[in-house]
Amino acid sequence: MGKLIDYEHYLLNILQKFANALQQRVDTIEYYLNMTDNDRDKKLSEDPIKHFRITRRLYSDYLNWMWFMEEQPWETLVNDIIAIAPQMPTLQDIEEAIRGLRLIQWTYSLPTAEMAKGVLQDIHHNTSLDGMQCITIARHMVKNKDFIRAKEWLMVGLKMYEADEEIEYIYSQLGMPLVDFYELFVEIQDNLGLRFLAMSELQLAIRNWPEKVSLQRALSRLKINIRIGKESAKKKEKSKGVYKKCCSSECRPTTKLYCLYNTTASYFLRLAPLKMELLSLDPYMVLFHDVVSDKDIVSIRNMAKGRLVRAVTVSKDGNYTEDPDRTTTGTC
Fold it and tell me: Which residues belong to any copy of the Prolyl 4-hydroxylase N-terminal domain (predicted)?
């Protein structure tokens, strides 16, 4: 995480330099416009001095302005970004991060809107997600056939998008125009079997963006699905396992459960007892608290820096392969 923050600061610094370079060019143009403000007459002046000013500008200045606009003084900044590109997070990193968020949301039964605001179990963590991040999560949910949860994330993201009309340009510049929200919404509604609602939204999107070929393709697919009566994609809920369900505080019974200090499992525990919280009687499940101190946690993290790699498993053909079940899936 430390390196990611360093990379973020590095890139933000490049953007700031880029903004400064642009502002300098804007200031230059505005200064020139102010210089010529007195000469903006619709008729050519009979004043020989004013006549010469205009003639000289048309002869010389505008050719130089053409060169000025063709210049790319920020090419070095682009090269600085290219140099660090191999260190940037990959698609796999994004997917693992989203799986981690999904696991947190499922384990603690967190409402999507609250989680997007950074509110976890009624505690605001002074951070939040924006519309682009919400649609990224929604796309991942669609990829994993979790259409109900995908719709929740998409609607939260769309609400953020529509709350600020001026944000559309920057979202489009960053590869997430408003039309992408509509396309994903139609795909989700189609898979949930709400095809007539999807049709009305899709027709609205086509009126707004008639040049988008992808919308026309989506319309053709939707018409075919309506015509043949294709069944909606009902995601079969995988059994999470009775042990994993006990990770959620909402499934824990409130009677006959208690906390205690375990001093009997080992002679050593008489000196350093374990804090135990009984979570479930059937199946029997306990949660150990303060097993590792905050100081030791920091120490372990520091030792792992530069050495932490993804765990691999052996595939059917005998090759080593990365598996999400070893990283962000199947853990409490």
Answer: 1-121
Q: What are phi and psi of 308, to 5 degrees?
A: -75, 125
Instruction: Specify the DSSP class assigned to residue 17.
Output: H
Q: Which whole-number Å values give the CA distances from 281 to 101, 285, 289, 290, in the listed order?
A: 28, 7, 18, 22
What's the chain's length in residues?
332
pTM: 0.70
> How many Cβ atoms sit within 10 Å of the Cβ of residue 116?
22
- Evaluate whether 181 touches 162 at the Cβ level (below 8 Å): no
pLDDT truncated to tens, each residue of the chain (332 aa)? 568 888 899 999 999 999 998 999 999 988 888 887 665 666 666 777 777 777 888 888 888 888 888 888 788 888 988 998 888 888 888 988 898 888 888 877 889 999 999 888 788 888 889 888 999 999 999 998 889 999 999 999 988 888 876 777 888 888 888 888 888 988 898 888 888 888 888 888 888 888 888 888 888 888 888 888 766 665 554 444 444 555 555 555 555 667 888 888 787 877 878 888 887 777 788 888 888 888 998 898 888 877 777 778 887 888 888 777 666 554 44
